[in-house]
């Protein structure tokens, strides 16, 4: 089935009587492949296709959403009718209100990826070889007890039309490889994780990519077996650029999503602080869905709004929240391309894409030399964050001691415990290096979304370092 925008426009027009203040159709086709090799066994091997659409109608401050797998015009009109009836029943006293802000129609948006090898043209056996080769390499190292390797690809085509006469079409091809390795020596068990992924075809993982990442993860897990327990207490911490920006994403980024900052019902610690200093002057954080090839990138968001480079914090000053159409309407500002949904079965909400702290003016080596005694974090793990308070606990996957300005021995079992907004304000050194953008699947209200995150080398002059927290769960992985 071809997602023909003219067909969807005709169906939308056929249901014009049910538009309310705003009406939208989101149509999706997707094909997914997932291969999981766990402990040498193929635990999952699946490939499937799915197609469906959802309609959304606004009346006043209320919206309703109805989805279906029936693409017939009658089904679309019926869905519009049902959605419109739901909004009218709930907001009769608000009838006639209109959208506060609307985006002008965009004629063209640049392509963000050139797919060299479409995954649907690659034999399944070739994809299986990706996980088998990773398993073989990791198990070739001593003390490796378990390897879980996962390959996945998605081809997603979306077409969005609405009553503002906007039309958006996007093809998103994402290819991902992940490997988790467990090493054991006597009663000490350590794990390590590596991944690659992007808005890319099979070229993202071809060649020896999976083998290299499996070797890196296995060597890290083995190295941590022989590391001594991390010291506990309050100390300076240097986060290396390769550590990834999970700290920025979890402890800071979610708080800048607009649905946590709505007037009258603020949840985030950043609510009402646009234009105020919320971070060190050295800190600039952007959320950018327009970077070619990155995992969280797209030409349009899932409401048909062209994506943007959004400056969230600039030189310590809070500049913007991340909006979908609903929050933009509530706050009287234009939407800025952050409306994302997992599939056509889900309603959009403000979400991050690629959240990055920009490079500063401090040399990375000088940052390490500035620490008399502290911790160098090379890889972050999972964690927990309270969006209301900003409090967080993050597991550290790989860390080293810094003694007299020199990186010395590895340590294991460290956790970082702190408050995101408070940490933002005391970061006092930011490296000139642009950190590697790592990938993740961000969970919010039971919806997953592909994201990227990254930082330069940075110094937190004082943070609590603790031991392993039992029962820790990951929100981004």
Q: Which descriptors would you attach to this protein?
A:
477 residues, alpha+beta, PmbA/TldD fold, six-stranded antiparallel sheet, 19% helix, 39% strand, disordered C terminus
Structure write-up:
The protein is an alpha+beta fold. The chain is built from eight helices and 22 strands. The strands form four sheets. The chain has a six-stranded antiparallel sheet. It has a six-stranded mixed sheet with strand order 11-10-9-14-21-20. Strands 8-15-16-18-22 form a five-stranded mixed barrel. Mean pLDDT is 90; it is low at 91-107 and 468-477.
Helix-strand layout with pairing:
Blueprint: H1 5-14, E1 22-38, E2 41-59, E3 62-68, H2 73-90, H3 124-139, E4 144-162, E5 167-185, E6 188-198, H4 209-225, E7 228-229, E8 233-239, H5 246-253, E9 285-288, E10 309-314, E11 317-318, H6 325-331, E12 339-340, E13 349-350, E14 354-357, H7 364-369, E15 373-385, E16 391-403, E17 406-412, E18 415-419, H8 420-426, E19 429-430, E20 438-444, E21 447-454, E22 458-466
Parallel strand pairs: 7-17, 8-15, 14-21
Antiparallel strand pairs: 1-2, 1-4, 2-3, 4-5, 5-6, 8-22, 9-10, 9-14, 10-11, 12-13, 15-16, 16-17, 16-18, 18-22, 19-22, 20-21
Net shape: globular
Total of helices: 8
The portion of residues assigned to helices is 10-25%
Count of strand segments: 22
- CA(first)-CA(last) distance: 33 Å
Structurally, the number of domains stands at: 3
């Amino acid at each position: 089935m071809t997602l023909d925008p003219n067909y969807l426009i005709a169906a939308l027009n056929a249901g014009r009587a049910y538009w309310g203040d705003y009406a939208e159709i989101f149509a999706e086709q997707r094909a997914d492949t997932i291969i999981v090799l766990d402990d040498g066994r193929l635990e999952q091997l699946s490939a499937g296709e799915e197609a469906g659409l959802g309609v959304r109608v606004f009346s006043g401050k209320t919206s309703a959403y109805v989805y279906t797998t029936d693409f017939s015009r009658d089904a679309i009109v019926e869905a519009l009718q049902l959605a419109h009836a739901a909004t009218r029943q709930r907001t009769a006293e608000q009838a006639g209100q209109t959208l506060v802000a609307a985006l002008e129609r965009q004629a063209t948006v640049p392509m963000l990826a050139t797919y060299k090898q479409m995954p649907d043209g690659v034999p399944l056996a070739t994809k299986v070889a990706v996980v088998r080769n990773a398993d073989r390499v990791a198990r070739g190292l001593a003390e490796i007890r378990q390897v879980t390797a996962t390959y996945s690809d998605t081809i997603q085509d979306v077409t969005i039309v609405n009553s503002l006469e906007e039309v958006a079409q996007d093809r998103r091809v994402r290819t991902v490889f992940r490997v988790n390795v467990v090493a054991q020596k006597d009663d000490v068990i350590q794990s390590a994780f590596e991944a690659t992924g992007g808005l890319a075809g099979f070229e993202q993982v071809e060649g020896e990519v999976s083998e290299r990442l499996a070797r890196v993860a296995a060597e890290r897990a083995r190295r941590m077996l022989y590391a001594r327990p991390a010291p506990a207490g309050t100390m300076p911490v240097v986060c290396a650029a390769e550590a990834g920006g999970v700290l920025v994403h979890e402890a800071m980024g979610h708080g800048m999503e607009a649905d946590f900052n709505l007037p009258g019902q603020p949840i985030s610690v950043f609510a009402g602080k646009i234009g105020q200093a919320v971070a060190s002057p050295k800190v600039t954080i952007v959320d950018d869905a327009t970077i070619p090839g990155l995992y969280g990138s797209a030409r349009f968001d899932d409401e048909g709004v062209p994506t943007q480079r959004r400056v969230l914090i600039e030189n310590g000053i809070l500049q913007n929240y991340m909006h979908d159409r609903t929050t933009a309407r509530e706050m009287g500002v234009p939407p800025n391309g952050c409306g994302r949904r997992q599939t056509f079965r889900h309603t959009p909400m403000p979400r991050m894409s690629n959240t990055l702290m920009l490079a500063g003016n401090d040399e990375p080596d000088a940052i390490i030399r500035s620490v008399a005694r502290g911790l160098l974090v090379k890889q972050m793990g999972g964690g927990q964050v309270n969006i209301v308070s900003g409090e967080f606990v993050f597991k550290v996957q790989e860390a080293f001691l810094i003694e007299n300005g020199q990186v010395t021995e590895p340590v294991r079992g460290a956790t970082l415990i702190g408050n995101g907004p408070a940490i933002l304000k005391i970061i006092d050194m930011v490296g000139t290096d642009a950190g590697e953008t790592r990938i993740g699947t961000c969970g919010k209200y039971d919806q997953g979304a592909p994201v990227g995150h990254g930082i330069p080398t940075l110094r937190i002059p004082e943070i609590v370092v603790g031991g392993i927290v039992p029962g820790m769960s990951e929100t981004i992985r």
